[in-house]
Design a protein that fits this description.
The chain has two domains: 332 residues, Aldolase class I (TIM Barrel, Alpha-Beta Barrel); 65 residues. The protein contains 19 helices and eleven strands. The protein has an eight-stranded parallel beta barrel, surrounded by six helices. Strand 8, helix 12 and strand 9 form a beta-alpha-beta unit. The longest helix is centred in the last third of the chain and has 20 residues. Bound molecules: S-adenosylmethionine and iron/sulfur cluster (SF4). The site of S-adenosylmethionine (SAM) has 21 residues, from strand 2.
Length: 474
């Protein structure tokens, strides 16, 4: 029984996750090779997979076929996204929380956690430092507490956009916060947010009930499952879904994510903009069973299968994961990563090199600086991108599928990745990163066909380098 009044749900609210059906899809004997290859071919033709087709890939155990799945994900990533990786940083605003999620250090029964909510001045100071390091895209993260209501979130977003240091500015603010009602989402939309992210954590009902005590706000499965539908009702057409891997069978959660993506697509004509797949990390005062822990080999399969299932949805890999694994996973279809991340409240100005577990939600696996991550991306041949053009030009939602429009990446994404990467190199990079980045940019420009676009791009790159102009997006 739902503890939330029906009027707070979206008009078509429905619990579209049928555990029995998903379990049954995962039960059959391994599929034959021809079926697996047909499904891979469908995905490589850039068609989203059904839940049943995704299950076939998940049921595949033959090592050679599993290799084919990984190889196909690499190819699809190259075909759809090219070699760009978008960079962002999280900014934790407050860790007060009325919920009691068993996996999270912010849960209210954790007495060891040092509680803090940044005020607007403190947010400003964090953003100044983030801008001085070169960030252009942030995600603001909040615990669930009445004080972090829609008006407060709105105010925080406006504060962030108002901070300008030198050439620095935050051009896109995404949100990860508690589910809102439609009015709350409307209010937050007015602040010009990018993506609103809400993770279901686990799509498996019994597990959901186990880790989210029933008397808490988050204990209501349907209210959370329906949250991003309410966001759509409020006009937020850019939403991010996710599952916290390690709570239940990872294959079930992949089917839950794909079901959710298809549900949003069917109801609103637009699927989620991003999918996140955090793995549970150690956290202060958290003692979870590791029964469903996802090992690295399965984690790679998971990312590859998600890539194939939803060819047009961005995949976000966070600094929860260690550097070497992040590096490897980029090739399987990840399109966005955070870098230079600190998640202690006030961590960008106050924390030293060591992480302070009592002040953060979980332990990070990758604490390298933005410049170190930029250097590695460039060495590996990726173009690091801080592009925010589509969202600022209103290119989102139902009528816009950047990846589906022929030539879009060539005309917009790659040039914007190159101009924003150059802004970083000129304003913030270490000498080594700058030298490597300039070489990469020259090589990428050389790959472009001669013509008006290339001429215009060369001109903009020159204006950024020589005239100090910024934000010259296509
Ligand atoms: N309080 C809001 C909520 O629960 O939706 C905002 C999100 S919370 C601050 C951000 C996300 O962190 C959660 O949705 C959860 O998936 C993830 N998380 C919580 N505990 C974690 C842990 N121990 N390891 C990894 N990720 C964790
Ligand atoms: Fe609170 Fe979110 Fe942590 Fe749950 S995951 S305890 S709601 S901050």
């Amino acid at each position: 029984m739902s503890s939330v009044c029906a009027s707070s749900l979206s008009p078509g609210a429905v619990d579209f996750i049928n555990d029995g059906r998903l379990e049954a899809l995962l039960a059959p004997a391994p599929p034959d090779a021809a079926r697996v290859r047909d499904i891979i071919a469908k995905s490589l033709a850039k068609t989203a997979l059904s839940v049943e087709e995704t299950a076939v890939l998940l049921n595949c155990t033959d090592p050679a076929l599993c290799e084919e799945i990984l190889a196909a994900a690499r190819q699809l990533k190259r075909d759809v996204y090219g070699n760009r990786i978008v960079l962002f940083a999280p900014l934790y605003v407050g860790n007060d929380c009325v919920n009691d999620c068993l996996y999270c250090a912010f849960r209210r029964s954790n007495r060891t956690e040092i509680r803090r909510s940044l005020d607007q001045d403190e947010i400003r100071r964090q953003v100044e430092v983030l801008e001085q390091r070169g960030h252009k895209r942030l995600i603001l993260v909040f615990g669930e507490h009445p004080r972090y209501n829609a008006d407060f979130i709105h105010e925080c977003v406006q504060t962030v956009y108002a901070v300008k240091v030198g050439h620095g500015e935050i051009r896109r603010v995404n949100i990860n916060a508690a589910p809102q009602d439609v009015d709350g989402f409307r209010r937050i939309k007015e602040a010009r947010i990018g993506t609103f992210q809400i993770f279901q954590e686990t799509y498996h009902h019994a597990t959901y009930a186990e880790v989210h005590p029933r008397h808490t706000r988050k204990g209501d499965y349907l209210y959370r499952l329906d949250a991003l539908s309410r966001a759509q009702e409020a006009g937020i057409d850019d939403v991010g879904i996710g599952a916290l891997f390690g709570l239940y069978d990872w294959r079930f959660e992949v089917l839950g994510l794909v079901s959710h993506a298809l549900h949003l697509q069917e109801c609103y004509g637009v699927g989620p903009h991003t999918i996140s797949f955090p793995r549970v990390r150690p956290a202060a005062g958290v003692h979870l069973s590791d029964r469903h822990f996802v090992g690295d080999a399965d984690f790679k399969r998971l990312v590859a299968i998600l890539r194939l299932a939803v060819p047009y949805t961005g995949l976000i890999l966070t600094a929860r994961e260690p550097p070497a694994l992040r590096r490897e996973l980029l090739s399987f279809g990840v399109s966005q990563i955070d870098a230079g991340t600190r998640i202690e409240l006030g961590g960008y100005t106050e924390a030293g090199d060591a992480q302070c577990m009592e002040r953060e939600q979980f332990e990070l696996g990758d604490v390298r600086t933005l410049d170190e991550v930029m250097g590695e991306l460039i060495t590996d041949g990726y173009i690091p991108s801080f592009c925010t053009a589509c969202y600022r030009l209103g290119r989102t939602g139902e009528h816009f599928m950047e990846f589906a429009i022929p030539g879009f990446i060539k005309r917009f994404c790659t040039p914007n990745a190159l101009t924003t990467a150059l802004e970083y190199l000129v304003d913030y990079a270490s000498p080594q990163t700058r030298a490597a980045g300039e070489k990469l940019i020259a090589a990428e420009v050389a790959k472009l066909e001669d013509g008006p676009l290339k001429t215009e791009l060369l001109d903009r790159l020159r204006r950024i380098r020589d005239r100090g102009e910024r934000d010259l997006y296509f």
